[in-house]
Amino acid sequence: MADEIRIPVPGDAASNPVTDDVVQPFMIDATGLHGRMVKLGPSVDAILKRHGYPDAVQHLLAEMLALGAGLSAALKFDGIFTLQTKGDGPVPMLVADVTSDGVLRGYAQVKGTVPPLHEVVQAPVPKLLGKGYLAFTVDQGQHMERYQGIVELEGATVEECVHRYFAQSDQFASAVKLAAGRRPDGTMGAAALLVQRLPDEGGDQSIGHADEDDWRRACMLMETATGEEMLDPSLPPNDLLYRLFHEDGVRVFEPRPIVEKCRCSRDRIETVLASMERESLDDLKLEDGTLEVVCEFCSRKETFTDAQLDQARAQKSP
């Protein structure tokens, strides 16, 4: 990495400039393994508050948002990284996406009865998502090839599904630990820890190879982090990383802020509507003859009259 390296000192405010809504890259000195710690607070709480999801859905989507932020920060791309699940359970779709600039958003589609949190916390994937798949997508625009990886929703948790995907990957392995829950003030928080390792041959040389024993040790140390520690708003990411890896030496790099923001706009909606057949739009109109569009990500509503639709079609037509 080209960023300046800083060695964290627990409790030193100067070494912890950002404590929330952040991705903190780090490296374990003894092995050269790289990782990311994600800590989300106000950003994930704002996303969830817009929708009023059941508690179980809030926790699962919060985990997906933290995971998406962490995985995107581990990739080199210029565009949008998306995590998406599709299944046959009461939550048939979850979406979390983050841009290469750290702009985060997400939503859940809920159909049917969602069990209470305490009934699904040990196995949210089969009980909420059902049978289906988890997709990883990197979209760098119309002039670049789109990358997508898919793994079946096999496992009790999102962590297990992700581990299954990386076990099949020939690029690099990634160990993941996720946490989501209520903070002392009642707001939602989410966190993710990721450690990466290259296979024996090939791959990005900026990521440590490490032998099997080193890799297992790093994963075991990461697993000792509790959900309470990961979510604690008073515990900076650097301090937790020091707790976990100080015996092997741990360095941190420039943190990357995460910002919650939807990319929808009236102009974008107009572009989509202008591309649709008029008959299809007529079927979607309200009783008063207007057309209302609601963004699934941020719940923003935009209303269009026939005159506005005609004007949009005229402006967007080639």
Provide an overview of this structure:
- By secondary structure, the chain is an alpha+beta fold.
- Strands 1, 2, 8, 9, 10 and 11 form a 6-stranded antiparallel sheet that branches. It has a 6-stranded mixed sheet with strand order 7-6-3-4-5-12, with helices on one face.
- The protein is built from 11 helices and 14 strands.
Brief synopsis:
The chain has eleven helices and 14 strands.
Relevant terms:
globular; 318 residues; 11 helices; alpha+beta; six-stranded mixed sheet
Can you write the helix and strand succession as a string? EEHHEEEHHEEHEEHHHEEEHHEEH
Strand content: 25-35%
Kindly report the average pLDDT value: 86
Main sheet?
Answer: 6 strands, antiparallel
- For the termini, the CA-CA separation is 45 Å
- What would the principal axes of the Cα set say about the shape? globular
- SSE class: alpha+beta
Number of strands: 14
User: What is the number of helices?
Assistant: 11
Cα Rg: 21 Å
Name the helicity range: 25-40%
Low-confidence stretches: 11-15
